[in-house]
Specification:
Blueprint (H helix, E strand, L loop, with lengths): L8 E6 L8 H14 L3 E6 L5 H12 L3 E6 L1 H11 L6 E5 L5 H5 L6 H10 L1 E10 L2 E3 L2 E5 H11 L5 H12 L5 E7 L3 E6 L1 E5 L21 E6 L7 H8 L10 E6 L1 E5 L6 E3 L2 E3 L4 E15 L1 H6 L2
Parallel strand pairs: 1-2, 1-3, 3-4
Antiparallel strand pairs: 5-6, 5-16, 7-10, 7-14, 8-9, 8-13, 10-11, 11-12, 13-16, 14-15
Helix pairs in contact: 1-5, 6-7
Length: about 300
């Protein structure tokens, strides 16, 4: 049975540099909504400097009933990690270029509709993953996509178009890495174009890497795209955008509760859109239903 919200106080964590919309306009919309619905509010604007500790201090002093992350995947991950294993739910007002987690749990991408969940949404617990002490709420990967995330973060242009252009340029000369993967159920060894550690379904670009993933089933999936001939690229891309990648002969999905992944030293790890420094051995563990999330009631109907 999912909990219906009855919030009196809310903390809004706003990333002032995410998205294209004026943050003054966003804050005004939030203030108007909270005034109309008699909701006490506090704002915190991220700076990239000591945000985690300052948000924790605000939570301790203000004691909000919900914390709303306003921004992209990085802002959502920041707030989610603070709230993980607590009773305070995470709400999301998506303003980033990807917004992967918010899309996977059905949160509206329009600000007014996302705000409305404060009154008409439900609270549901979802799983999280631990990779060498780093928390994953959505997707993490090694290989080609992580390499493109690195290039994308180094550039000045944002949005899906910029990501796609970088991927197109780098794809031709990309050389797959080798991996050794031991899960609690099976062992796999070989080269892979990409290795995605998935607690959800799709990237923010709407490419579905893990069609059968469920956010609260106590399992995660390691989704492998094995090396493929250049001529197969268009078909693979089509499969990713039509929820059929699992049918490809170049796709393999390992469903598990724990895993050890051994990678090459030059391979890159990204977690929820952020690059992470790590050792060449990744220890992946499941945290079952560790995070409370505010989401639309339709999600409740779909998961019953």
């Amino acid at each position: 049975m999912l909990q219906k919200p009855s919030f009196q106080k809310a903390l809004f964590v706003l990333n002032p540099i995410s998205g294209d919309i004026s943050k003054e306009e966003v804050q005004a919309m939030v203030e108007e909504y909270c005034y109309e619905h008699h909701l006490q509010l506090t704002f915190y604007h991220t700076t990239g400097d000591n945000d985690c500790n300052e948000i924790k201090e605000l939570i301790a002093t203000q004691k909000p009933d919900v914390v709303m992350a306003i921004g992209g995947d990085g802002t959502v991950s920041l707030v989610a990690e603070i709230l993980n294993f607590s009773s305070i739910p995470l709400g999301i007002i998506p303003l980033g270029s990807g917004n992967g987690l918010s899309k996977d749990i059905g949160i509206p991408q329009e600000i007014d509709q996302a705000l409305a969940l404060l009154k008409n949404g439900v609270i549901r617990k979802i799983d999280s993953l631990d990779i060498n002490g780093k928390t994953v709420f959505h997707l993490s990967d090694l290989g080609f996509n992580a390499f493109i995330v690195k290039k994308f973060n180094e550039g000045e242009t944002r949005g899906p178009g910029a990501y796609a252009w970088i991927a197109l340029q780098e794809y031709i000369n990309y050389a797959p890495f080798s991996y050794k993967i031991q899960t609690d159920k099976e062992y796999w060894e070989g080269e892979a174009f990409m290795v995605t550690i998935a607690n959800a379904n799709a990237f923010g670009s709407n490419a579905t890497i893990n069609p059968s993933g469920i956010l609260d089933d106590g399992f995660f999936e390691i989704c492998l795209i094995e090396p493929f001939p250049k001529g197969a690229a268009i078909g693979l891309l089509f499969s990713l955008y039509t929820d059929k990648i699992h049918n490809s002969v170049y796709s393999r999905i390992l469903k598990c509760k724990s895993a050890t992944i051994r990678k090459s030293a030059d391979d890159i790890l990204q977690i929820d859109g952020e690059l992470v420094e790590t050792s060449d051995t990744l220890i992946v563990k499941m945290n079952t239903k560790s995070l409370s999330v505010l989401m639309p009631p339709v999600v409740e109907e779909e998961t019953q």
